[in-house]
Amino acid sequence: MTWSTRSTRQLGLASLGLATAGLAAASWAVAPTASSAATTPNRTASSAATACTVDSGARKVPGAHAKDPNTLSAAATAAVEAKARDRAAARGLTPNASGALARTPRSAPTFERATAKRAFTSTTISVYWHVITNGSAGKLSSTAISKQITVLNNAYAPAGFSFKLVRTDTTTNADWFDTTGPTGGTDGDAADAKAMKTKLHVGTKSDLNIYSVAFSDGTLGYSSFPFAGSLALDGDVIDYRSLPGGSYTDYNQGDTATHEIGHWMGLYHTFQGGCSDTKGDYVSDTAAEASPAYECDTSRNTCAKLPGNDPVTNFMDYTPDACMNHFTAGQNTRMQNMWLTYRKSQA
């Protein structure tokens, strides 16, 4: 399984504990669009966050450092992207001039492919929420979950996605509740988390399973990618304290779930690939970034030879929730492409 981690503000690198042989490809670079950033004003972030290096921080609470098992190498990412192109083509989808997948085969004339209308249409995603408690801690009210769904709907509306809570269940299991972030390897999950998902997962690749727990190692959350192979392990695991109004200062506005679902949709971190002007996160309207940002410094520029300051207000960086406010148009297109390639039912 492939993973993406974002813990309490050390947000783990898009958790991919990928054995390259088992990669089920992702997508491709998306051409920039005229209006790439949201116009929401920047918000002041707390100075509590503590930076870690890219290699040592699996998205954790400030001060917690752990090896991130989900960072993709350039070669692994290239393999993912190539396989995504092949899978899309097998579904009769090729990119048009704007990078959006359209229902034209590769054999179609270049002009026809370039001008074809994007195949994506607005989509509502069914959400199955699995509340894990230890009997006393971890309980969530319907109001808290409803507020989290609202946060997601606001963040993903520009991309054409909405979320509908279909069912909530509660399980008391102290081992599952007090869990750790992904451990690496081919599936990524710790043994308890794997058992939890295998028991509780509902639906298909088009359905979002969210598991709320309390991470014992400072992790905020992690996610599978759409190109991961195991349906039973598909979904997002987040710390219940990161929901809107939760107890995690700086990380309690619900954007841990926003960030992790970005990975579930196929996005990498904005700092994936470092200062690469050709690869990076495979979205061309996010400025290159050498390392994750933990504070809301909009003048930060870690790739000075390339255009733009670091995208610290992007949902796919590591900054506190108050700083995050948008996906770019290119990220929206990539999510749509990945949905069509991996998650949309072909029935």
From TrEMBL:
GO biological-process terms attached to the record: proteolysis
* Domain called Peptidase M43 pregnancy-associated plasma-A: residue spans: 249-338
State the source organism's domain of life. Answer: Bacteria
Q: Which InterPro entries match?
A: MetalloPept_cat_dom_sf, Peptidase_M43
For this protein, the record's PANTHER family field holds: METALLOPROTEASE MEP1 (AFU_ORTHOLOGUE AFUA_1G07730)-RELATED, PTHR47466
Going by the UniProt record, its keywords in alphabetical order are: Disulfide bond, Hydrolase, Metal-binding, Metalloprotease, Protease, Signal, Zinc
What's the protein here called?
Peptidase M43 pregnancy-associated plasma-A domain-containing protein
Name the Pfam families on file: Peptidase_M43 (PF05572)
Signal peptide (from-to): 1-37
Instruction: Provide a Gene Ontology MF annotation, just one.
Output: metal ion binding
- Family membership, please give it: Belongs to the peptidase M43B family.
Residue ranges of region Disordered? 90-109
